[in-house]
Amino acid sequence: MIDNNTTKKVFVDASRLITEACVQAGADVFIGYPITPANLLYSYAVARYPEMMAAPDEITTLQWMSGFAAAGKIPVTATSFPGYALMIESIGMAHMMELPMVIILVQRLGPATGTATCGAQGDINVIHGSLSGGYQLPTLCASNYDDCWTLAGKAVHLAAELRSPVVLLTSKEMIMTLRSYDWSQLPNIEKIKLNNETKASVYKPYAPQANLVPEYLPYTQNKHQVRITASTHNQAGILQNLAPEALENSARLQEKMLKNLDTFTYYDYDKQEGAETLLLSMDVSSQATREAAEELRKQGKKVSVLIAKTLFPIPQVYLEIAEKYKKVVVVEENFDGQYRKLLFGYAGRKGVSGINGIGKMISPNEIMEGVNNE
Amino acid sequence: MSNQAFLSGGELPFCKGCGHTGIAQNTEKALQKMGMNPLDVIMVTDIGCHGIVDKNFLTHTFHGLHGRSVALASGLSAALNNPDKKVIVFVGDGGATIGINHIISAAHLGFNLTVVVHNNMLFGMTGGQPSEFTPQGFKTPTLPDGSHKNSFDICSVISSIEGTYVRRVTGIGDFSDALAETFAVKGFSLVEVMEMCPSYGVKSNPGMKLKTVVEASGLQTEVFADTDGRVFQPNKKEQTASLLNPKYEVTAKFSHNLSNKVKIMMAGSAGEGVQGAADMLAQAGMTAGLNVTKKGSYPVTVGVGFSAAEVILSPEEILYNGLYIPDVLIITSQDGLDYSKPAAKKMTTGTIFIDASLEAPETGAKVIKVPFREKVGARNSALASIFYYTKKYQSFEFEALKSVFATSKLSAKIDINIFLDL
Ligand SMILES: Cc1ncc(C[n+]2csc(CCOP(=O)(O)OP(=O)(O)O)c2C)c(N)n1
Ligand code: SF4
Fold first, then answer.
1. Ligand 2: nearest atom to the Cα of B20
2. CA-CA distance, B255 to B288, in Å (whole number)?
3. Which CATH superfamily is domain B250-420 in?
4. Where are chain B's structural domains?
5. Is B56's C-beta closer than 6 angstroms to any atom of ligand 2?
6. Which of B 22-51 lie inside 8 A of A, CB atoms?
7. Rounded CA gap, A356 and A75, in Å?
8. A160 is in which domain, residue-wise?
9. Of the candidates A129, A160, A182, which is a domain's last residue?
10. What ipTM describes this predicted complex?
11. Can the peptide bond before residue A313 be classed as cis, meaning omega within 30 degrees of 0?
12. Kindly report the CA angle at A113 between A107 and A116, in degrees rounded to 5?
């Protein structure tokens, strides 16, 4: 029971928490192009970010963000699938250039323009396949309001620490619903500062440090030449065709994510002794999944719950946990179970099934029926 | 004048006789004339033959995507916000074709940078395809009969935007003064350099002279606009207030009667206060110590059609914020009825409060007709419905709702008594 004297309950949407967390974490500028259901993030940004830029389209948004990132700022944007689709080539550019930024992707119902005012979880594959060549964008996904706060802050930190675009994946009902929420316990978020010095006498923009992340110098300084490029390049940032050093540099882009994955692996594992069924979910479906698990347990059914908060790169531990269960039920609001197929492949695995749907939130009842009918 | 090198001195990466060579060399000369420090210059290059020259520059270099270089440079320039730094963009006529919107917007917003359009009238890197800049009669390997349209006149287009500096030069010999004058502009400047690609342009149009093509296509080599000093002003704030304002905190001072959660769907028409009323109901629940969620549903055009809201009131923590099947459905208009028919059909228990003017939907729930619209008018019907619900259902103290209403802006406009005797 929470002590009533210390709780501070507010009636808020999660867009507010995300915006505040990003700014406290050190985001310098919001660059945006309007799109439902990301517009609350845009409106809050106008009031809260130190700097705000209204871009003329989403390609420009990502290009401006890259320009800001190269000048030592951490930019944030928020969009939905149609905007994200336009951004993809530029996100690949920023990833190859190793520029810090956060892209908040608020999922809505597709395909195409679809229904702007309806939530969905249909962009998991798009994020997974955003980068040509099998590379992954670090992708965090909040399962509740606490996460919206913590992971938004972490997304900004991660962008700076990894020198990479980071995706914060969410959806309409997660960030537009108003809730009573106790914000007295929100953990403090530290403000991150981008490095702007080097220990090297001759700076190489793509020379990896021990954690495989290169030192970062912005164009604002004039002591060291900075070369930033999205073409295959060597450590000096000079275009190369297929020189071994350049290919090594490209491979490093994925190795740096995997090497540091432990520092950003977030999940909830609610394990019930003796359970043979694992419910696995993410984003707004996590809440229905948690509620279904509570109900099932009340009915005497044993279930464990795994909530994935780091979606990409996929942490190995998810598969290790899933391995322990006869049955795995993956709950996600899309047509055919995108995350399930990424985890278990198209061939699937005996005992793995999905609860999916489009056009409405998946309810605890549907999950319970799914589990009981197994 | 300084003699600092801006180019590394190695061979430039272009075919013999390529017009790009002259632009790189004249750029170095112009920057020397201006006395610039190489590391105060950022060369932003597009994808195309002209773009691979970045490795020869001793400035900072920034090499991105095809057609997007001007947008990339715009972001950089806005972030630098420093008149002592020089941002120069090298883009081809191909890049200017695919990215024309970025050039227009950079000119319009007045970013402090110079765009150097390398207009060789075709796509060099990809094998000599035509661009929007290919002039009439000009042949390319994929356009053997020659172009049937006039070339795109970027200088006319951009100079029509207020506050820009725009000029066209023929890229033969020493044109470093023209470049230096353009680079010296504070604000947006563009220089289009007419040049030839020997590998595809000259080969496809044997004997054709650059000067002749330029003249024949009616492209003037002159200064089109010469405004200096209209520079983009960033939208920056020294200090912004936290969004976690204590004014949003709600103190529980009333009591409630719920032992289980109640799921309420409100369905009405846009402009009839459904969202505001739902917010108020949820907030009233909070002042009575309940946990609440409120989720809105409406078409993209918020001003017409249905407007629906889902409110959950619960003594326990709420996880799932959907309704699945509502316990209470409040319908205040025909739009709302049309929207909520499927929900009504699913209800086997619970209550539906529906405006007296409407026909009851198919349902297993108890239906109560209330003359909301007749008594308080369409605009206040949703508000009336939450007063009615609260009084009837007693989920929480009626005073909670009255007090939330009294502190809302609406209380100045609407007399609360109209809701009390429904
Ligand atoms: C989005 C995209 N589309 C197409 C290409 C292929 N491409 C590379 S260079 C180029 C055209 C280059 O022509 P131009 O910009 O005039 O430069 P030049 O090679 O003549 O210097 C094209 C179409 C690309 N890199 N990216
Ligand atoms: S192909 Fe044409 S544009 Fe490209 S370098 Fe050769 S001459 Fe220049």
1. 8
2. 5
3. Pyruvate-ferredoxin oxidoreductase, PFOR, domain III (3.40.920.10)
4. 19-226, 250-420
5. no
6. 37-40, 42, 47
7. 34
8. 9-182
9. A182
10. 0.97
11. yes
12. 55
CB < 8 Å from B in window 94-153 of A: 97, 115-117
Cα(A87)–Cα(A120) distance, rounded to whole angstroms?
20
- Closest CB to B74 among A4, A64, A173: A64
**pLDDT of chain B, 422 residues: tens digit per residue:** 788 999 998 899 999 999 999 999 999 999 999 999 999 999 999 999 999 999 999 999 999 999 999 999 999 999 999 999 999 999 999 999 999 999 999 999 999 999 999 999 999 999 999 999 999 999 999 999 999 999 999 999 999 999 999 999 999 999 999 999 999 999 999 999 999 999 999 999 999 999 999 999 999 999 999 987 788 999 999 899 999 999 999 999 999 999 999 999 999 999 999 999 999 999 999 999 999 999 998 887 768 899 999 999 999 999 999 998 999 999 999 999 999 999 999 999 999 999 999 999 999 999 999 999 999 999 999 999 999 999 999 999 999 999 999 999 999 999 999 999 87
Alpha-carbon Rg for chain A in angstroms: 21
Based on the number of CB atoms within 10 Å of its own CB, is B366 exposed (0-12), middle (13-18) or buried (19 or more)?
A: exposed
Q: Give residues 276 to 295 of A whose Cβ lies within 8 Å of B.
A: 284, 287-288, 290-291, 294
**β strands within chain A, DSSP E:** 9-13, 29-32, 51-54, 75-79, 101-109, 115-119, 139-141, 165-171, 178-182, 227-229, 267-270, 277-281, 303-308, 310-312, 327-331, 352-355
Is residue B375 classed exposed, middle or buried when 0-12, 13-18 and 19+ CB atoms within 10 A define those classes?
A: middle
- In this structure, which CATH number among 3.40.50.970, 3.40.190.10, 3.30.460.10, 3.40.50.2000 belongs to the domain B19-226? 3.40.50.970
Cα B87 from chain centre? 24
Cβ <8 Å between B321 and A287: yes
Whether the CB of A181 is below 8 Å from some CB of chain B: the reply is no
Residues of A in contact with B270 (CB under 8 A): none
A29 - beta bridge partners? A51, A75
Strands across the sheet containing A327-331: A267-270, A303-308, A277-281, A327-331, A352-355
Residue among A219, B67, A220 at smallest CA distance from A228:
A219
DSSP for B96-123, please give it.
Answer: HHHTHHHHHHHHHHT-SEEEEEEE-SSB
Amino acid at B399: E
Residue A68 near residue A94 (C-beta atoms within 8 A) = no
Put simply, the answer to whether B85 touches A219 (Cβ < 8 Å) is yes
Are B76 and A219 a contacting pair at CB < 8 A?
A: yes
Could you tell me if B346 lies within 8 Å of chain A, comparing CB atoms? no
Amino acid in position B2 = S
Structure tokens at B381: 């019907």
Is residue B54 less than 8 Å (CB to CB) from chain A? yes
What gap in Å lies between CA A371 and CA A79, rounded to an integer? 34
Tokens of A23: 């700014």
In terms of domains, do A167 and A274 share one?
Answer: no
Tokens 């029971």 label which residue?
A1
Give residue B153's identity as a one-letter amino acid code. Answer: D
Asked if A170 contacts A107 with a C-beta cutoff of 8 angstroms, the reply is: yes
Cα separation, B285 vs B147, whole angstroms: 71
Say whether A180 and B295 touch across the interface (CB within 8 A): no
Place of tokens 């889902």: B310
Contact B317, A1 (CB under 8 A): no
Question: What backbone phi and psi angles, to 5 degrees, belong to A260?
Answer: -100, 0
Amino acid at B200: Y
Query: A182-188 contacts: CB < 8 A, separation 24 or more?
Result: A182/A2, A182/A7, A182/A8, A182/A9, A182/A10, A183/A8, A183/A9, A183/A10, A183/A12, A183/A17, A183/B244, A184/A6, A184/A7, A184/A8, A186/A17, A186/A146, A186/A149, A186/B244, A187/A149, A187/A150
